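Hi again,

Forgot to attach this to my earlier email, sorry! This is the prediction with flavin-adenine dinucleotide bound. I've pasted everything inline since the attachment limit keeps bouncing my files.
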Amino acid sequence: MKPFEYATALTVESARQLAGANGHYLAGGNDLLGRLKDDITEASRLVNIKAIPGLNRIEPGPQTWRIGALVTIAQIEDHPEIRRVFPGLHQAAAEVGSQQIRNVATLGGNLAQHSRCWYYRHRDIQCLKKRGRICYALEGDNRYHALFTGNVCISPVVSNLAIALTALDATAVVWRDGQERRMTMAELYELAWDNPTAHHSLRPGDLLLRVEIPTVRPRSAYLQISDKHSFDWALVSCAAAARIENGRIHNARIALGCVSPVPHQVTAANQFLEGKNLDEATADQVADLLLAGAQPQEHNAYKIPMARALIRRTLLQLRG
Ligand SMILES: Cc1cc2nc3c(=O)[nH]c(=O)nc-3n(C[C@H](O)[C@H](O)[C@H](O)COP(=O)(O)OP(=O)(O)OC[C@H]3O[C@@H](n4cnc5c(N)ncnc54)[C@H](O)[C@@H]3O)c2cc1C
Ligand code: SF4
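Structure tokens for the complex follow:
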């Protein structure tokens, strides 16, 4: 591991100043410290952001909830009101890694975590995402990779919380250039769609402050399938959120994870759901819309039937 400086920020402004051009924010450290130890990331300075006041709060509201970037995944999982108001977010949090990881991993770090592609995570492999020339997964072992991408890199977004928050239509609030900048979840990842070196749309120095979640979708659900029940990322995940009135679904949002460099959403699928009775036939048609145009690689075509099953189960869970 290369030497680096360490500093603790006490305010948002000082965090930005301390980060400078090549500093990295340190929250729970689950992702960043592993990358530093494996020489995947170099930092001139680590800026501990955990002492910045106010970023560790969960603030309920009648129309909007605010969850600070330093709130841990365990706090999200264990919050009884989150479980009631945003059950899909609770389920997504409960599925992250293991209890030990959830105890220290933060919301901000979960959203900003880097690719899990094993070529990217190998210290000796300089793939396209590390500004090399080749995507090794394209001709290699791509069983965990994407079905959709707008560029050559086929590494998918694997953050559970990103998928649940996409379905809930949350807004990420980011400190950029001395002011708060609001981004939809789609905007938070859109750069990764066509830029192979990007993991998300955050620029160096951008600090995630919180997410804001509207309460207009009282039904939500999140399901995933993994190789192992704990200590593992999803192979495919699915989140959905909506309002149900007289058995009909309204204002629905559905998103897939681990199949694209961005949370995978299709506007036509959300629109198709409007006013429908939630049954298996409807769910199957939504699956057709969400999976249209999927381009499996040599080893990951299994993700298509897996996603189809998850879409059906997740939507049917919304019925309660
Ligand atoms: C064995 C294992 C299994 C896992 N399984 C899952 C899983 O199933 N699902 C899942 O979603 N995740 C999983 N993870 C990933 C884990 O959830 C993330 O590594 C963790 O959430 C990162 O949070 P952190 O606070 O530790 O971030 P850190 O490691 O401190 O930071 C991660 C990155 O985010 C940046 N960052 C942190 N906070 C901010 C901020 N406020 N603003 C801007 N940038 C910021 C850092 O600079 C760094 O680049 C797993 C991890 C492990 C080790
Ligand atoms: S999928 Fe992306 S991260 Fe993985 S080897 Fe290819 S370019 Fe690198």
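The chain is about 30% helix and 20% strand. The longest helix spans residues 303-317.

That should be everything now.

G.
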